[in-house]
Amino acid sequence: MEMIDILAICMIVTSLAVFGLRNLKLSVGIYALQTMILVSIFTMLSVKFSAHQLGMWAVVAFFTKVVLVPTILFCLIKKLSVISEDEPVGGFFVSPVIAMGFSLAIAMSIYPIFLEFSLIKEKIVLIAAVTVFMMGVFGFMLRNSFIKQILAYCLFENGIHLTLALMAYNSHELVELGILTDAIFAVIIMSILAIRFYKAYDSLDTSKATNLRG
């Protein structure tokens, strides 16, 4: 097994940790580690396939997703003085098992389709990309904490970036820059909403906002 495949598997493991860990600071730290692994995969793909555009992706991703996004989330946690998340849907043990089981099953079933359209045909990396993406989707559905749902968005985005790196790394530089920087603005907006939500409900548990249901 090549180093790039091992790193791809590490992305799956770290997505489970970000999803499942109850401590919010630890979850953000693991997310930063996962994004550093993503940057390493970009760099290795750039060298292996002479895809010089991925070298630029790696540099921009390091500053936006390894440095800025975790810094914003750490500041949010410090401002709200929260330590751990509220009880998720299905409990702290069951929901990660459900999310990982379904994410892997979906990734294994649809990756052959994505592989047909990929410029870089790396099976394990593509399976990891889809799995991380699906872990983000399940994060929105199964976690109640506002901060955990922001992290679910970040997982969702890491999965998209890795998929695009395999399928369309040669797209225009402005498109790549826009894809990599949108996370900052999205996380800033969601952080402001989290602060306002906490002031209104004295909690980050989104299930308590029953008055917002239509």
What does this structure look like?
The chain has 214 residues and is mostly helical. It has helices spanning 3-20, 24-48, 52-80, 91-117, 123-142, 146-167, 173-201. The chain has one domain. Helix 2 (24-48) runs parallel beside helix 6 (146-167) and helix 4 crosses helix 5. The radius of gyration is 17 Å and the shape is globular. The termini are far apart. The model has no long low-confidence stretch (mean pLDDT 87). Pfam families: Oxidored_q2.
Q: What's the total number of strands?
A: 0
Judging from the principal axes of the Cα atoms, what is the shape? globular
Helix content: over 70%
The chain-level mean pLDDT equals 87
Q: Which keywords apply here?
A:
214 residues, mainly alpha, 7 helices, transmembrane
Describe how the helices and strands are arranged.
Elements: H1 3-20, H2 24-48, H3 52-80, H4 91-117, H5 123-142, H6 146-167, H7 173-201
